[in-house]
Design brief:
With 385 residues, the protein is mainly alpha-helical. It starts with a helix and ends in a 34-residue tail after the last helix. Strand 2 and strand 3 form a beta hairpin. It has a 3-stranded antiparallel sheet with strand order 1-2-3, covered by helices on one side. Helix 4 runs antiparallel to helix 5. The radius of gyration is 21 Å and the shape is globular. The protein is built from 15 helices and 3 strands.
């Protein structure tokens, strides 16, 4: 084994460490250089990476918890990914994300996955947690930005379908810095939650565009996830915008099913619910346990914040549908398999969750929180948040 791989992993670990612990990074690099054998250096490098991920996750989670105070609650809690990080469901979600990725590491190690897979998943976890912290630190934005964000994400999905990287008849990926990413795994959960929290005209149009994009790619897994989210929402809170989004998602899913999808299963990514048990029963149990962790924030949110139970239900429906698709077809297994897109998408979804215990100002004139307000016949396609 080349010594460049352990050295690169240690440099990544040093870069991931929070600023107060940068001296640890220097010590890691010095220790790695003093190790004589490549195998011992590699084991040491993986230990450094695990330590860096743990410390970075704890640091950013502590920052999120420190900002989680009543004083940080915006006066008007129209849906925004920048309205401050939330209370318990989000913090529980961060722990679940870290746990799922960690259980995924156990499977990847048992299956003999390349070392770079650990590095990429670990880096995606830290990046996602940092994004949650950064989004929470941003100032509250106005209604225009609230409308632009979902439309921008939807058009990004459409651009991927038209000009993204194509393989085996599917165009689901983009390349950033030589790293292939799947935008649908990152953006569909956010779009579904944005629509659940504020089903205005902008969010409705964004869902329609996203459904078309997923049909064009085609991406049956995320089209099904979007359908699951909108379908559950229209059952719990029926209304004009809910119905329009559901019909669009249903049509997009039907087209995605109709179109040919010949993508083969990728090792360590697809079909690992079955292949993991062939590796070792404990590896299979790790994959199952990690997948179940993804829906825990839904249960916590339903208990801690019953006024917004439909929003948390949408979060759970989207990820449960993604897990089901991974079990039934050649689609990425979220968080426990190799792939940073789902890790980032899950954490962005946590950032889009509401915070429990909203102030009275977050309710409309009926006294009901915005996430649960009536969007029946009065729910028009206006672009106001």
């Amino acid at each position: 084994m080349s010594r460049r791989m352990p050295a690169s992993i240690v440099r990544l670990a040093a870069a991931l460490l929070p600023a107060p612990l940068r001296d640890w990074g220097k010590a890691m690099r010095a220790e790695e250089e003093s190790i004589e054998t490549s195998s011992a250096a590699f084991r040491f490098a993986l230990g450094c990476l695990g330590c860096a991920i743990r410390e970075a996750a704890a640091f950013h989670a502590a920052r999120i918890g420190a900002r989680d105070t009543p004083q940080s609650e915006p006066e008007d809690e129209a849906m925004s990914m920048t309205d401050g990080t939330g209370l318990r469901p989000r913090l529980v979600g961060l722990a679940c994300a870290a746990g799922a990725v960690g259980l995924g590491f156990a499977y990847l190690a048992a299956a003999g996955a390349p070392p770079i897979y650990f590095v990429m998943n670990g880096a995606a976890l830290v990046l996602g947690i940092a994004l949650v912290a950064a989004l929470g630190a941003m100032p509250r934005t106005g209604r225009l930005v609230h409308g632009i964000v979902p439309l921008a994400l939807a058009f990004a999905l459409l651009a991927t379908a038209l000009w993204g990287i194509a393989a085996d008849g599917a165009a689901r990926w983009v390349s950033i810095g030589g790293v292939a990413l799947q935008p649908s795994l990152m953006f569909v959960p956010v779009l579904a939650l944005r629509f659940a929290r504020a089903p205005d005209g902008a969010a409705t149009v964004a869902v329609v565009i996203a459904a078309c994009a997923l049909a064009l790619q085609p991406d049956r897994a995320m089209a099904g996830a979007l359908l699951a989210g909108t379908g559950l929402l229209v059952l719990m809170r029926p209304g004009l915008n809910m119905g329009a989004a559901f019909v669009a998602a249903l049509a997009g899913f039907a087209v995605a099913l109709w179109r040919t999808d010949a993508s083969p299963a990728m090792p360590y990514v697809d079909q690992i619910f079955f292949s993991s048990f062939a590796v070792h029963p404990l590896a299979g149990m790790a994959v199952l346990a990690g997948s179940l962790l993804l829906v825990v924030p839904t249960l916590v949110g339903a208990v801690r914040d019953p006024a917004r139970r439909s929003t948390y239900a949408v979060f759970g429906a989207v990820w449960l549908a993604s897990i089901t698709a991974a079990a039934l077809g050649n689609y990425p297994t979220p968080l426990v398999g190799y792939g940073g897109s789902a890790i980032i998408g899950y954490l962005l979804g946590l950032a889009a969750l509401p915070r429990p215990g909203a102030s009275p100002a977050a309710a409309d004139a009926t006294g009901r929180p915005q996430d649960e307000r009536d969007t029946g016949p009065r729910g028009d396609l206006s672009f106001s948040a």
